[in-house]
């Protein structure tokens, strides 16, 4: 697979594999001897083992009792990162050590793995936030929930409360099988191809916390959906199973491997096989085992599955999967059909049982513990069943009775959640940013929130007269690592410092015209960068208004923003 260079238009590899003439630390090729410090400490003591020390030692003796290798390394295996110390500006991010950047508090990530969050679970999540995390809570674009300001003394009690309702932080971070993306409307959507809920449950119950899979080269991201909207961003995960119907074998999954963004973006590729529901657990285990055994470990910036796939290609990957890990061939399979609608599920939608699911939008994923508790009470009071999180920092309420939908939508608005958002609130995402993240260079959440508010006013005329007839995706990221998927947005903003009149101020490099397969886009593609096109944080609303108006006035009939931005001359994009 190749992608197009955004400046020259020439084809180039999506990622460049490491050199073949030196050891890459592949266990099945080079042996398991560690080639760097990170691999050494992972072998010395598995990250999963740190939980006992947290419960028995650190939570009693306090933050100062935690040794560096546990604090900056193994804690991640249980969803814990030290958060950024307040008051450190973005210009110092790359200059300071992790210890200098770190506060004495933690971000704690809770997995949802596509599960339904019942009213009881919502209240537990809300109570943890208000009791231990200063009322913080963010929905991430991987269907996780993140808290901040967590003290080490409180972590065992947080685990106790989570696990009492079937939730966990196990391997939410670290070189592990990270949280699973699952269709938010699994099991209820009228047009569903296959319900992935039992499959995700079988994999997580069998393999989360498995010591055979807890020392991977780096993180491993999974997405599984059976919905025809393609609602789990399958092109940018290490492995995705996407619902299809085989003409002879019936419903099952199409296998995609090797996607990922960050500083070396690469879109996943189809392996070309049909995966039955019965064999899907073994196929997932085969793919992650290939990554464990053949993934590059010498350099961490080359240690994702996408680099191995770039070297092997899908044909060799399939051969190794079938011969070394499954022991038999898989049937050829069809690709997914084009997406049937938006994958964020915002709005009111009929379920197959006559009830409705309601997709609602917070602002850039930011909520609170108080809101979670009130949402749990609201869901229960209406006789709805549960909430699922989405891959777009949204939430979906399941099983709302048909005769109570409008009242429910109105009460969601009272919580600050809207099922009928403006185009800008609906499609804007933002990562954690400099407020808490040690890698960030600029602020994101409030910057995006302020931009939404201004754009709702500034571009109201285009929305009202129908000129802006499709939402434009605006993704705001605080650093180059693309946690908010900047390369796959209509307008992706990569945080950096911008020099204005000799002074460095927070700003962004602009990516234009990226996107994943959707109802208005047949194939995924990475955004275009225009040399020198940067915008300050203060000027962000001005820039977005300007480029959107250029699009509306310069497009041809039926042309999407992505299509226009790839063909437009650079002057129109400034």
Automatic annotation (TrEMBL):
<keyword id="KW-0408">Iron</keyword>
<keyword id="KW-0560">Oxidoreductase</keyword>
<feature type="region of interest" description="Disordered">
    <location>
        <begin position="1"/>
        <end position="46"/>
    </location>
</feature>
<keyword id="KW-0479">Metal-binding</keyword>
<feature type="domain" description="Nitrite/Sulfite reductase ferredoxin-like">
    <location>
        <begin position="349"/>
        <end position="413"/>
    </location>
</feature>
<dbReference type="InterPro" id="IPR006067">
    <property type="entry name" value="NO2/SO3_Rdtase_4Fe4S_dom"/>
</dbReference>
<dbReference type="InterPro" id="IPR005117">
    <property type="entry name" value="NiRdtase/SiRdtase_haem-b_fer"/>
</dbReference>
<feature type="domain" description="Nitrite/sulphite reductase 4Fe-4S">
    <location>
        <begin position="425"/>
        <end position="552"/>
    </location>
</feature>
<feature type="domain" description="Nitrite/sulphite reductase 4Fe-4S">
    <location>
        <begin position="173"/>
        <end position="329"/>
    </location>
</feature>
<dbReference type="InterPro" id="IPR006066">
    <property type="entry name" value="NO2/SO3_Rdtase_FeS/sirohaem_BS"/>
</dbReference>
<feature type="domain" description="Nitrite/Sulfite reductase ferredoxin-like">
    <location>
        <begin position="104"/>
        <end position="165"/>
    </location>
</feature>
<protein>
    <recommendedName>
        <fullName>assimilatory sulfite reductase (ferredoxin)</fullName>
        <ecNumber>1.8.7.1</ecNumber>
    </recommendedName>
</protein>
<dbReference type="Pfam" id="PF01077">
    <property type="entry name" value="NIR_SIR"/>
</dbReference>
<keyword id="KW-0411">Iron-sulfur</keyword>
<comment type="similarity">
    <text>Belongs to the nitrite and sulfite reductase 4Fe-4S domain family.</text>
</comment>
<dbReference type="InterPro" id="IPR036136">
    <property type="entry name" value="Nit/Sulf_reduc_fer-like_dom_sf"/>
</dbReference>
<dbReference type="InterPro" id="IPR051329">
    <property type="entry name" value="NIR_SIR_4Fe-4S"/>
</dbReference>
<dbReference type="InterPro" id="IPR045854">
    <property type="entry name" value="NO2/SO3_Rdtase_4Fe4S_sf"/>
</dbReference>
<comment type="function">
    <text>Catalyzes the reduction of sulfite to sulfide, a step in the biosynthesis of sulfur-containing amino acids and cofactors.</text>
</comment>
<keyword id="KW-0004">4Fe-4S</keyword>
<dbReference type="Pfam" id="PF03460">
    <property type="entry name" value="NIR_SIR_ferr"/>
</dbReference>
<keyword id="KW-0349">Heme</keyword>
<keyword id="KW-0883">Thioether bond</keyword>
């Amino acid at each position: 697979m190749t992608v197009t260079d955004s400046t020259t238009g020439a084809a180039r590899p999506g990622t460049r594999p490491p050199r073949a003439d030196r050891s890459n630390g592949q266990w099945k090729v080079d042996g398991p001897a560690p080639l760097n410090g990170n691999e050494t400490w992972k072998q010395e003591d598995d990250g999963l083992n740190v939980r006992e020390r947290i419960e028995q030692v650190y939570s009693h003796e306090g933050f100062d009792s935690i040794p560096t290798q546990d604090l900056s390394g193994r804690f991640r295996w249980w969803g814990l990162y030290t958060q950024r110390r307040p008051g450190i500006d973005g210009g110092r991010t790359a200059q300071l050590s992790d210890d200098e950047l770190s506060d004495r508090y933690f971000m704690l990530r809770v997995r949802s793995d596509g599960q339904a969050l019942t009213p009881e679970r919502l209240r537990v999540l809300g109570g943890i936030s208000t009791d231990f995390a200063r009322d913080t809570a963010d929905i991430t674009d991987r269907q996780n929930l993140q808290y901040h300001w967590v003290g080490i003394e409180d972590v065992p009690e947080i685990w106790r409360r989570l696990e009492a309702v079937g939730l966990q932080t196990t391997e939410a971070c670290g070189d592990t099988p990270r949280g699973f993306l699952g269709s938010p409307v699994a099991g209820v959507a009228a047009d569903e191809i296959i319900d992935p809920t039992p499959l995700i449950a079988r994999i997580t119950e069998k393999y989360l916390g498995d010591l055979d899979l807890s020392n991977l080269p780096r993180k491993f991201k999974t997405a599984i959906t059976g919905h025809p909207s393609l609602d789990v961003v399958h092109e940018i995960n290490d492995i995705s199973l996407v619902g299809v119907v085989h003409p002879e074998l019936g419903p099952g999954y199409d296998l995609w491997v090797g996607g990922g963004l960050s500083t070396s973006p690469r879109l996943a590729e189809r392996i070309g096989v049909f995966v039955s529901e019965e064999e899907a657990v073994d196929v997932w285990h085969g793919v992650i085992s290939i990554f464990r055994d053949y993934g590059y470990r010498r350099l961490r910036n080359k240690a994702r599955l996408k680099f191995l796939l770039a070297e092997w290609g899908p044909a060799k990957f399939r051969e190794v999967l079938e011969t070394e890990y499954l022991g038999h061939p898989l049937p050829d399979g069809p690709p997914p059909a084009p997406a049937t609608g938006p994958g964020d599920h915002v709005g009111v939608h009929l379920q197959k049982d006559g009830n409705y699911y309601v997709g609602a939008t917070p602002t850039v994923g930011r909520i609170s513990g108080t809101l979670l508790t009130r949402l749990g009470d609201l869901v229960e009071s209406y006789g709805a069943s549960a909430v699922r999180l989405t891959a777009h920092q949204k939430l979906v309420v399941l099983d709302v009775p048909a005769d109570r939908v409008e009242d429910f939508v109105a009460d969601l608005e009272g919580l600050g959640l809207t099922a009928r958002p403006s185009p800008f609130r609906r499609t804007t995402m933002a990562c954690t940013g400099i407020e808490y993240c040690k890698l960030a260079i600029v602020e994101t959440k409030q910057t995006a929130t302020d931009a939404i508010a201004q754009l709702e006013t500034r571009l109201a005329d285009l929305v009202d007269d129908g000129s802006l007839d499709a939402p434009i995706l605006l993704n705001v990221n605080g650093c180059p690592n693309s946690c908010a998927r900047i390369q796959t947005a209509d307008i992706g903003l990569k945080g950096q410092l911008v020099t204005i009149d000799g002074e460095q101020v927070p700003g962004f490099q602009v990516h234009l015209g990226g996107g994943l397969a959707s109802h208005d886009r047949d194939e995924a593609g990475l955004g275009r960068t225009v040399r020198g096109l940067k915008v300050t944080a203060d000027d962000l609303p001005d820039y977005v208004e300007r480029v959107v108006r250029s699009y509306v006035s310069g497009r041809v009939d039926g042309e999407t923003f992505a299509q226009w931005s790839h063909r437009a001359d650079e002057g129109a994009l400034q």
